[in-house]
Write a structure and sequence with these properties.
10 helices, mainly alpha, single chain
Length: 261
């Protein structure tokens, strides 16, 4: 643990982890809270250390929410197993090539995609209210695997909004309702977080004590968030999704316009 880290800063990081875990469990996007908190709270840490420590905390979040969804929603393994496997591989590949791809090249693209996705969901209020699968058999598995590779690679390269991209892909492409999509997204996101740690841990990039404490906040927040999503249903998850996407648009849009770093 960094020697200059005060108890106050550490407590605020744990609270940030708690809030991030809740958001991440409902619809993804906890990194919008947790990453900036780590950047501010650990000014002496390298970007790689911040990313790696964030991934460690996020593993706790996705573990807790995945288990809660698995017990209460019972997602279909015929979808989440191939989705999880290919997401893991995509994330490893993305993490390995991340250093060669400038982040600035991705931010405008992600911003445009988020605006389109948010507008699409907003203008189609019936989207994701009920499950109406668009594919069956091998075509369904192929769509799940394609989603896993693409979103997993994005998580390895850049990361912010991965859970939300999993959700909208499962809703818009495969035809799940928002609650079922969130359940499968959390399992896939757990796999991408573990995959990133497979790359980061051997590099010695993880600040273990900070990451484990933030992980405790993630764990509690994710448990509460997943139970809230299950009890409130797909309509609640849809509204939460729109709020998180809007926050991402503001955050990335401000970065493109130079309002903040």
């Amino acid at each position: 643990m960094p020697a200059d880290l005060s108890l106050t800063v550490l407590a605020l990081l744990v609270l940030a982890g708690l809030a991030a875990g809740f958001v991440d469990a409902v619809v993804g996007g906890g990194g919008l809270i947790q990453l900036p908190a780590l950047l501010v709270g650990l000014p002496g840490a390298s970007p790689l250390q911040v990313l790696a420590t964030n991934k460690l905390g996020s593993v706790f979040s996705t573990s807790a929410s995945s288990l809660t969804y698995a017990r209460r929603v019972r997602p279909d393994p015929r979808t989440f197993v191939p989705l999880m496997a290919t997401a893991f591989l995509g994330s490893v590949l993305g993490a390995l090539v991340a250093s060669r791809l400038p982040r600035e090249a991705f931010v405008p693209i992600v911003l445009v995609v988020l605006v389109v996705v948010g507008g699409y969901v907003l203008l189609r209020p019936s989207l994701g209210q009920v499950t109406a699968l668009r594919f069956t058999g091998r075509h369904h598995v192929a769509a799940a695997m394609g989603t896993g590779v693409v979103v997993g690679f994005y998580d390895g390269v850049l990361g912010p909004g991965t859970g939300s991209f999993f959700v909208i892909s499962l809703v818009g492409l495969l035809g799940y309702d928002f609650l079922q999509a969130s359940a499968k997204a959390k399992i896939a996101n757990w796999a991408t977080n573990v995959a990133a740690l497979v790359v980061f841990v051997p590099q010695g990039a993880v600040l273990w004590q900070v990451g484990l404490l933030i992980g405790l906040g993630n764990l509690v927040g994710a448990y509460v968030g997943a139970r809230t999503a299950v009890s409130r249903g797909a309509g609640f998850v849809r509204v939460f999704f729109l709020l998180v996407v809007s926050a991402f648009v503001v955050r990335l849009g401000g970065e493109v316009l130079g309002w903040w770093g």
